[in-house]
Amino acid sequence: MEKRRGQGSTEYLVILGAVLLISMVTVIMVGGSQSSGISVKEQQSQSYWKSGATPFSISTVKVTNSSVALSVSNALIEPIYLTAVEVEDDSGNNATIMTPNQMFNAGEQIDLSNYSFSDSSNPCVGKAAGSEFEFKVVSFIYTQGSISGIRQQGTQPLVGTCSALPLPYVVATISVGTYAHGVAVTPDGAYAYITNEGSHTVSVIATASNTVADTIQVGSYLHGVAIAPDGAYAYVANGNDAVSVINTSDNTVVTNITVDSGPHSIAVTPDSAYAYVTNSGGNSVSVINTSDNTVIAAIPVGNSPHGVAVTPDSAYVYVTNYDGIVSVISTASNTVVNSITVEGILHGVAVTPDGAYAYVTDEHDYKVSVIATASNTVVTNITVDSRPHAVAVTPSGAYIYVANANDGTVSIIATASNTVVGTIQVGTSPHGLAVTPNGVYVYVANANDNTVSVIDTGTYH
């Protein structure tokens, strides 16, 4: 076939143009990657861990110099139980960074975190925010069906950049009296009052220095404590069937009010006019008029009532009972107007600042039940660690903190999703906890080691 004049030159120009176009696209892509701050290694890591790893994938990872958080998904069509997450350190040793012990349903994504991650296996220790980190090997240890100890070892490293976001962690541990139980913080946030069941005292912690500023001898076998919203008095439930009233200006006991058998927890109405006291031995709630410190009503509730919370509008009081029932009291009539079946052994209760939900802890089934107060129905249950006791809500209403007695942990629940977004290791057998009015700190009473852990809430407030 005859070749036309100029055909070779034209083909050459076409090929040259294509090569130049590909080169320009490559430069743009590489330049875009660099300008976005994501290295090629991090892009490869994201590609593998988001879509190539199985059964567990990682959609997001956040590491600070003291914490690690992962969003982990189960890619299988059946549930699998994740027991541990391990990484390989620079010496080639495996280090366990998380022990979720959590069931992942098919396709389910769960946020996992460790807020006490500051050892040599943390690649962000000593690095500035924005520095690249790398976990050379990441492994998931899980159970599938009857087979346990299955190891999924990643074939690509997990790469990202160190974060500077403040995450919750324990900033102080304070020694108090024997068997620390209840916690309440003054409205100005200046002091935290801790009941010590074994030493029959109340420790007063100055929050500015996190030191014990005063110790008050009060009754016997102390349990709950509440401080009136006006800050004038603290009310303490003690084992001699009384509520002791402490004048917070000089920390003296001004009177003792006889109530029913076994007072446990106390809640004061927003106007400071009334205090509601659960009596675990008397299956009742005592109502105290704070103006003259007299009992004006005794309300029968469920079996062994423990927790108590007043709604922000003062209209209702929510009481948890050991028989799995939440009693709803109308403050207008001081009668039970609703009984909500939650099931389990119910302990603590907290109502959100908008009054829309009540969060209830269940010691038996290790869960937190969420009650919609408009309908007084349980809308969801959230699994937490073992034997959840006290529960507190942040002033913003965005997060719930739960003390888990058996595991020595505090669970953080995001109210927007009603999921656990973090777990913090504290002291032994945490019972009571309270959030400061500004939401910056949580004070946790650890019964078995006679201490109070102070948590900096970081962005979780």
Structure report:
- There is one protein chain.
- The model is unreliable at 1-7, 12-16 and 18-35 (pLDDT under 50).
- The protein is mainly beta and 461 residues long.
- It folds into 2 domains: 40-161, Immunoglobulin-like (Sandwich), CATH 2.60.40; 169-456, YVTN repeat-like/Quinoprotein amine dehydrogenase (Methylamine Dehydrogenase, Chain H, 7 Propeller), CATH 2.130.10.10.
- The chain starts with 6 loop residues before the first helix and ends in a 5-residue tail after the last strand.
- The protein is elongated, with a radius of gyration of 28 Å.
- Helix content is 9%, strand content 50%.
- The protein has helices at residues 7-36, 40-52; strands spanning 56-63, 68-74, 80-88, 94-98, 102-104, 109-114, 132-135, 138-144, 147-153, 158-161, 169-175, 180-185, 191-196, 201-206, 211-217, 225-227, 233-238, 242-247, 252-258, 263-268, 274-279, 284-289, 294-300, 305-310, 316-321, 325-330, 335-341, 346-351, 357-362, 367-372, 377-383, 388-393, 399-404, 409-414, 419-425, 430-435, 441-446, 451-456.
- It has 2 helices and 38 strands.
